[in-house]
């Protein structure tokens, strides 16, 4: 099985190298409602997921489904406008397939974004939280199965899944631009249901500040393959709250869109500083 996955990753990487001759250094994965960030990129090539061999196809509203190659802040970048989630019915290996391909394209740094529910009571809708750690007991580890030694060690260290030097630089960028940035722990769940009130309370008790349905499996595989990871959550709803309101995906997208200019500045300047 692992031999088949390696073959598919190599096939896909070869196809994309034939589509785009540049050498991207940084990859960006955009979460729900954050796809407009690609307008900041000087686009040199767009490849729809449906045209890429072996690639999954995004099925979620707010995820457009294309790979964008170009230039941003003087660096060659590739952006995934639309990601894949375990709740869509994909296996963990399918969810992280693009991460494997990105590494084979030569990516050194992976920037991740997501829309998340706020658990920390100090958070407000529209805030940005830098992820400094995560809790992933609720979703299957994508490294389960036979290890591919040329991709990484059997037991990768996860003591620093999100690189401290990138976090430090991002905080400096935020301070210089008067962008309020939180820092905290991201708790991943399978979805697609939003959490119950009791689940939100439990997630808070175990030490998380935000909760969402993505990012962690991508982060694990990026670390396994030696990429440096930086990730942020846009707080699009509040799980710990007094009023009896409900959460809808439309409201999540609206909040993400409102916060996008701040996220765009953060990512743009961070890429410039790499």
UniProtKB/TrEMBL annotation:
InterPro entries, alphabetized: Nucleoside_phosphorylase_d (IPR000845), Nucleoside_phosphorylase_sf (IPR035994), Pur_Nuc_Pase_Ino/Guo-sp (IPR011270), Purine_phosphorylase (IPR011268)
Pathway note: Purine metabolism; purine nucleoside salvage
Record domain Nucleoside phosphorylase: where: 26-272
CDD domains hit by this protein: PNP-EcPNPII_like (cd09009)
TM regions (residue ranges): none
UniProt-recorded Gene Ontology molecular function terms: purine-nucleoside phosphorylase activity
Enzyme Commission code: 2.4.2.1
Key words of the record: Glycosyltransferase, Transferase
Database matches in Pfam families: PNP_UDP_1
Coiled-coil segments on the chain, per record: none
Family named by the database record: Belongs to the PNP/MTAP phosphorylase family.
NCBIfam families per the UniProt record, alphabetical: PNPH, PNPH-PUNA-XAPA, PRK08202.1
PANTHER family: METHYLTHIOADENOSINE/PURINE NUCLEOSIDE PHOSPHORYLASE, PURINE NUCLEOSIDE PHOSPHORYLASE-RELATED
Function as written in the Swiss-Prot or TrEMBL entry: The purine nucleoside phosphorylases catalyze the phosphorolytic breakdown of the N-glycosidic bond in the beta-(deoxy)ribonucleoside molecules, with the formation of the corresponding free purine bases and pentose-1-phosphate.
Protein name listed in UniProt: Purine nucleoside phosphorylase
Organism: Niabella yanshanensis
């Amino acid at each position: 099985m692992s031999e088949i996955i390696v073959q598919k990753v190599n096939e896909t990487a070869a196809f994309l190298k034939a589509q785009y001759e540049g050498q991207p250094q940084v990859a960006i994965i955009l979460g729900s409602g954050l796809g407009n960030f690609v307008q900041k990129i000087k686009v040199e090539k767009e490849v729809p997921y449906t045209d890429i061999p072996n690639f999954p196809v995004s099925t979620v509203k707010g995820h457009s489904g294309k790979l964008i190659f170009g230039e941003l802040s003087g660096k060659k970048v590739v952006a995934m406008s639309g990601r894949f989630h375990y709740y869509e019915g994909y296996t963990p290996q399918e969810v992280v397939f693009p991460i494997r391909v990105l590494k084979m394209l030569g990516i050194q740094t992976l920037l991740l974004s997501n829309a998340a529910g706020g658990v920390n009571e100090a958070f407000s809708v529209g805030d940005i939280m830098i992820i400094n750690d995560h809790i992933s007991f609720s979703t299957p580890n994508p490294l389960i199965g036979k290890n591919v030694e040329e991709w990484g060690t059997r037991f990768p260290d996860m003591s620093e899944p999100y690189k401290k030097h990138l976090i430090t630089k991002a905080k400096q960028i935020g301070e210089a631009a008067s962008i309020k940035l939180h820092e905290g722990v991201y708790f991943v769940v399978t979805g697609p249901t939003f959490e119950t009130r009791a689940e939100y309370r439990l997630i808070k008790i175990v030490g998380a500040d935000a909760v969402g349905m993505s990012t962690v499996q991508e982060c694990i595989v990026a670390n396994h393959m030696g990429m440096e990871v930086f990730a942020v959550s846009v707080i699009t709803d509040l799980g710990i709250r007094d009023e009896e309101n409900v959460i809808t995906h439309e409201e999540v997208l609206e909040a993400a869109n409102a916060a996008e200019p701040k996220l765009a500045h953060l990512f743009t300047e961070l890429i410039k500083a790499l």
